[in-house]
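Bench notes, afternoon.
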Amino acid sequence: VIQITLEHEYQLMLNKGFKDKAAELGVEVNVCINELNPEKTVRCAEDLIASGVDVMICAPGDQASWMAVAHLCKEAGIPLLNDGSPQEMLEGVTVPFIGTASRGGGNLAGVFAGKWINEHLGGSAKVVGLTLPTFTDCVQRNEGFNEALRETATGTIEIIEENGYGLRERGLVAMENILQGHPDVDVVFGCNDDSALGAMSAMQAAGKDPEKHLVIGFDGTIGAFEEIKKEGMFRLDIVQQPYLYATMHIERAVKLARGETSVDDYKEPLYIETPVVSIDNADEWIEKVSTYMPE
């Protein structure tokens, strides 16, 4: 398995899903971290192939490194499963994506933001989108958010996009810099929870009234749910289900390794719809997600 990091709740749940399902099925799973670095992605693939893996699962950070890994797997004669974001396929080698319907989840966030802006700000707002340009999923989330927001809000929407690097500390710094030039920001959408939470911290430090501002995240982490329960400016989180995705990937990988299925049996990507968490169901999701976190 090539994972992007082990520093986020999402990735920890994903990792636990890989290991739990592997243990259940009696197989070994080796994990290499690429840190969204294309060169590290390729080195991970080379190292895993050299170790004798039968199947590879890769979270593609970008198209080029994904295809480089695909060609390495083709040479080694092993299937490659896509965990992360839809990418170009290599016939006979790659198994289509399983994971979040990122654009659809972004749409849900955009509709919520548009309705909130209509109700609380008269339909017009200055909106910040913290994204991660090197990660296809994040780009799709922001694009989905932007299109649904513009369709839903009845007034003028100004969108300012900045790289939040998917990290809380970087999201905080990015938002602090934005506020210097745009102190009248009303709404923030983070392409993951860490960037949204970092941006919220910057908004709070700047003295923004939580009644008049909105922050939306995208991940489904306990930290985001706990903020929602405080009934401040963080009002909505779009939920991914990494533990589910990981177990599905391992099930496919084991069937491929044992010859029970072939790459050609998997034709289309499998997009998992994103639940939405608000104050109405935050407690329920905290309990649910807690069971998927490593001890």
